[in-house]
Amino acid sequence: MEKRKICVVVTARPSYSRIKTALKAIHEHPDLELQLVVAASALLDRYGSAVDYIKSDGFEIAAKVFNVLEGENLTAAAKTTGIGILELSTVFDNLNPDIVVTVADRFETMATAIAASYMNIPLAHVQGGEVTGNIDEKVRHSITKLADYHFVASENAFDRVIKLGEDTNSVFNTGCPSIDLAAEIKKSPELDFDIYKKYGGVGARPNLSDGYWVVMQHPVTTEVGSSRRQIEATLNAVFNRKEPVLWFWPNVDAGADGTSTGIRSFRENYDLSNFHFFKNMQPTDFLKLLYNSKGLIGNSSVGIRECAFLGVPVINIGSRQNARARGFNVIDVDYDEKMIADAMQKHSAVKKCKESYVYGGGDAGVKMADLLATLPLRFSKTITY
Amino acid sequence: MEKRKICVVVTARPSYSRIKTALKAIHEHPDLELQLVVAASALLDRYGSAVDYIKSDGFEIAAKVFNVLEGENLTAAAKTTGIGILELSTVFDNLNPDIVVTVADRFETMATAIAASYMNIPLAHVQGGEVTGNIDEKVRHSITKLADYHFVASENAFDRVIKLGEDTNSVFNTGCPSIDLAAEIKKSPELDFDIYKKYGGVGARPNLSDGYWVVMQHPVTTEVGSSRRQIEATLNAVFNRKEPVLWFWPNVDAGADGTSTGIRSFRENYDLSNFHFFKNMQPTDFLKLLYNSKGLIGNSSVGIRECAFLGVPVINIGSRQNARARGFNVIDVDYDEKMIADAMQKHSAVKKCKESYVYGGGDAGVKMADLLATLPLRFSKTITY
Amino acid sequence: MEKRKICVVVTARPSYSRIKTALKAIHEHPDLELQLVVAASALLDRYGSAVDYIKSDGFEIAAKVFNVLEGENLTAAAKTTGIGILELSTVFDNLNPDIVVTVADRFETMATAIAASYMNIPLAHVQGGEVTGNIDEKVRHSITKLADYHFVASENAFDRVIKLGEDTNSVFNTGCPSIDLAAEIKKSPELDFDIYKKYGGVGARPNLSDGYWVVMQHPVTTEVGSSRRQIEATLNAVFNRKEPVLWFWPNVDAGADGTSTGIRSFRENYDLSNFHFFKNMQPTDFLKLLYNSKGLIGNSSVGIRECAFLGVPVINIGSRQNARARGFNVIDVDYDEKMIADAMQKHSAVKKCKESYVYGGGDAGVKMADLLATLPLRFSKTITY
Amino acid sequence: MEKRKICVVVTARPSYSRIKTALKAIHEHPDLELQLVVAASALLDRYGSAVDYIKSDGFEIAAKVFNVLEGENLTAAAKTTGIGILELSTVFDNLNPDIVVTVADRFETMATAIAASYMNIPLAHVQGGEVTGNIDEKVRHSITKLADYHFVASENAFDRVIKLGEDTNSVFNTGCPSIDLAAEIKKSPELDFDIYKKYGGVGARPNLSDGYWVVMQHPVTTEVGSSRRQIEATLNAVFNRKEPVLWFWPNVDAGADGTSTGIRSFRENYDLSNFHFFKNMQPTDFLKLLYNSKGLIGNSSVGIRECAFLGVPVINIGSRQNARARGFNVIDVDYDEKMIADAMQKHSAVKKCKESYVYGGGDAGVKMADLLATLPLRFSKTITY
């Protein structure tokens, strides 16, 4: 029997981290052949060159697609998606996959979904059914309505996809593959490397031995005009606490300019002797860093998922993670300096939070690979109501 | 107060017919400015040059976008959509509309939906919530999840859009604007022109005075391989009945080749003395033609909507119109010569069917214009569950 | 030593025929690896699906690129080229060739030239330096100014490329690879197949045993408005002579509509009992057909090149082949029924013309492969004056 | 008589400065209507938002086209051009200009040339016939072969365009429109504004009253790998001289990363108390700044053109300006610290150089407008040899 060709399109650094164990499981599955396509910001240096990590992790790349239109505005996001469709169609036409896998809900993942579904290639969607703020919200559910299989990460998401009119036989709660990596890390979570040496970055190099905070805050596309004010609330709160802060640059999105400008301007006006800035980090190292931190501040989904599993305290700011299921580790706050400061104070009282399995137990990748190997191939469906 | 700029993107001849009264109502509304964009097959001669009708109807065209990629295969459909996004983004950036309107569910309408929603322009979707077979099914609900306002055509569709998690305040049963035109036609439905003279076409010119059938059957994109066999069932059934047949060419879609080839081959092998073939017809003339016919055969939505209102007997073939609400005029059949023949026989017993208002009462265009003038502008939403 | 990767982009049926022996020579060269990219109309059924011949000739296809925008107008030609650049860049980025080869002067070959030269990939241009009418004229010399190596087909072309400011070391008169095929055919030129049976086509099937004419006339892009009138002069001339005519459909170009419409209309109005129409033919069969014909009529470059070598009488109509070097076989005429008729009469007096080696002697493919294997790699140049 | 519609496409800040007086002359010409299209980096903040200057100069913008693909690599340059063609075709189709004007030789100007020439719109090319290093060299001459009219800037360029086979009647030595602006500046060249206050920028704010140097050095696309080393030679030379330096960031081009990285790294490792960095400046202010400086260092064409006219000493580094005609003001040097330092020393001995009219006398814009109003419209040509 010929192996099923599974084409996974990775378009951004965070998506790669999240899907990595699934890629590994597909690659190692006896009945599957992995066709890995790397596109969009995953190819770009200023968003952390996921492509380099992908190669150094030993994956072979079937095709690269440069499609990020410059501008960091909303027009550019739309055009990036249009170019993505144009080129991924050619890629799919040349690779001829049996199933295409699209990950999560970034705007450009819609390109994968449209190219595959329009070409009658069965489409699997990872991480549908969640609720967030942002354009991601529209994109995610819109992709659900194009996808033929749904690999969701929580019970809550499972129920929502069913409510969206998808057939019960097409929805599977695999848990989130990002938890798989966290599960491995939990086995030996020591911060066994010098982060400054290994990752460079810019700014002061505060001593981390008495604890440190990690910040990762992305702009929210539906609130473009406010992104500078939003980032300043966070900057002020963590600056005033005077504890070491490891700050990660936001990923590419309309509004990044407001966020980036806010950070740069703050840096010029204040002596940030307790801040160090990173562009990115290998996922495993990042999870170790989180595990050993006083907590994560911002609006990254890592705080909601991996940190729930790892019991890392999280201060989740604003609407971006919205109604996603929570573990026991999250304090939700507004873009408000005082609320952020209070939450930091509160979290400082504990070392770790209770661990939660709301996003799965660490076998999502293997479950997905097994499903991809056995699901009946189909590319047509009708709404259930 | 400045007028709201309403940008409507028309991508195909049938969409234009359907939305025409809404365009007129927007154009005439004191608080609205119409920005009409004509794109895709609406610009192409071999799909009936809707653009010519649009101009002769007196509408000013704000921008034209050529984006149909050649191939009549599924890759081309995806790429056409990608190019559409790329270009419509520029058009929207230059026109700067307050609301964008996208019509129905053809594959390329997704380009309008993505460009507008990614650019944070409030998006109104006309004719969501219906159920059909085909890639249209995926596209339609996917657009619903991107749209901010929903102008649906029936109660049934209204309920479905609500179930899809849309806010009740954003869904409006306006009825279908195609019914508006039918309502006008009903006032004086005489076939007051010589169709052969006015529209040319090819084939024999059967005498229509004792009645005639109209056929319009489109390929179904999820059943590409079967399109030739499907069209042959219809060809055989109508050929054998030996009554006059006015046949309309299918619109552009992957699979058109199978359908077209089937028709051409049939034409070469049989003496079709009772067939005449048209490429297209002005909507008002087409409705008059239907009104005075023995019935419509095929899978066009006109049979489900306008014909329900007009009481024209319809034989609806296959899955394309699926679960759309029916009036009293439709007999649903498979791609089966005998079933089609039997339905023709059955319909022949009556002259007209009972009229139905399931798709509205003829004021959809005006209702839409009023809504577009008064709805609060918004481009962000959260699923209701 | 690693083999040099030579990427040849084929975008149309006639280009494939012309370059075929070079492809073979590259494929068989011990120091070269052929990367064959098939794009544009070479992939489309209605332009003769060159891709099928390419496969049946045993070449492996490295990538396919669908980029023909529908419209058959000039806007579509530009957009086809734009999409070509967008996609070929990705293809080149993925294939990483050492040299890219672009063939001749069709509008879309510019896409290959731009993608390669902008990406600093050494670019070889086949058949530069010739003079014709048409947009081809602009395209051809424009590509010369982008190319790093020039494989020209005649002394005349050689001189012209040098005059254009190219370095003598970069220009090589290889002869035309189309002659290679003609040289093979000349060894056994019998029409050893039933053309009607093998190629189908439409129209009458005149008896060919007493001789026949072949017609191949393409629209000229700078004379779009006149293409219908131009084709009618030819139709009238060959119709009135009442000898068998084998007519080949024009290839895709803006204006094809005028040409095609002219032919279709003529066919409807006259009883063309001596005409048969073909869409396309395998190059070897086509050359045999020409070899045994009374002559070729139209504006195809085959008349200027292969027919010069084979001594086939040619009536070359209009400006399209312009100042290309001529052998002894061509009578040049205007788009004028009488001039065409007179030339047919004149050519009828001879069976064959004197053979000419103005376009080489049959070893162009091998010469090109040898050059591609040994030329120093470079992608930068300065004009020589 | 209807006015001729002249569509000028501006794709970058420096091109705008250069063409500005022509835009003004076209706009003011009684027989012409200006259609100004702003595209590519001219729309982007990080390349100086030429679009803002264009608006504040009072020009109306007919269309904006975002087409810069992110990557700052060569693939991105090719794709940017492809997208440009795709979109400019739509723009031209909607604007329907009588003549399109493309400026100079940046890679993306090819998009304008292809869209216009393929659409049979007469194309005027400004600044053909010059010789430089770089991909610009290929692009420039390639555009010459597509263009119908040539508005060249010097006798030298005039001769070269004729040698390229263009008809004498289509080539006009108008002089360079950039000189028009310089001619105005020369009338009152005082540095009558506070550059730090007006333009911000970063770095020290050295006192300029005893003189200062201006640096503007762009990466050279054919020497991508060397751009960092190249910029360091300049950095070292000007740093060591310890006189005030006003440094302008390079424009967008493949390789900008190497150049930018070199500058950033230097800035981090040295105390640049005599350096101030600007992103951009209004052209008139920039010319005043140059006029009052000790000289311009780098490889900008401003040094070759405007500075020749103004008599500003220039140290021209490397191959980028290659064989362009020189006035009396230029010392050409390699990417070599010592050579640069020596040239600075030599130029320091004089205050101004002798003025030269090699690039015209200040009426290029008016000359161009007059030509555009009167030239016969044509879009077809044949090489002259």
Summarize the structure.
The structure is a homotetramer of 385-residue chains. Chain A is α/β, with parallel strands linked by helices and 385 residues long.
| Unreliable segments of 5+ consecutive residues of chain A | none
Determine Rg of chain A (CA atoms, Å): 20 Å
Summed up, the domain count of chain A is 2
Distance between the termini of chain A: 37 Å
Q: Which strand order spans the largest sheet of chain A, edge to edge or round the barrel?
A: 3-2-1-4-5-6-7
Structural class of chain A: alpha/beta
| Top CATH class of the largest domain in chain A | Alpha Beta
Mean pLDDT of chain A: 92
Give helix and strand order of chain A, one letter per element, not per position: EHEHEHEHEHEHEHHEEHEHEHEHHEEHH
The biggest chain-chain interface is: A-B, 53 and 53 residues
Oligomer: homotetramer
| Main sheet characteristics of chain A | 7 strands, parallel
Content of β-strand of chain A: 15-25%
What is the element layout, followed by pairings?
The structure is a homotetramer of 385-residue chains.
Chain A: E1 4-10, H1 13-28, E2 32-39, H2 50-56, E3 61-65, H3 74-95, E4 99-103, H4 109-118, E5 123-126, H5 134-144, E6 149-152, H6 155-163, E7 171-173, H7 177-187, H8 195-199, E8 202-203, E9 213-216, H9 227-241, E10 245-248, H10 256-269, E11 275-278, H11 283-291, E12 295-298, H12 301-304, H13 306-310, E13 314-317, E14 330-333, H14 337-348, H15 364-374
Parallel strand pairs in A: 1-2, 1-4, 2-3, 4-5, 5-6, 6-7, 9-10, 9-12, 10-11, 12-13, 13-14
Antiparallel strand pairs in A: 8-11
Essential attributes:
alpha/beta, Rossmann fold, 385 residues, 2 domains, 42% helix, seven-stranded mixed beta sheet, seven-stranded parallel beta sheet, homotetramer
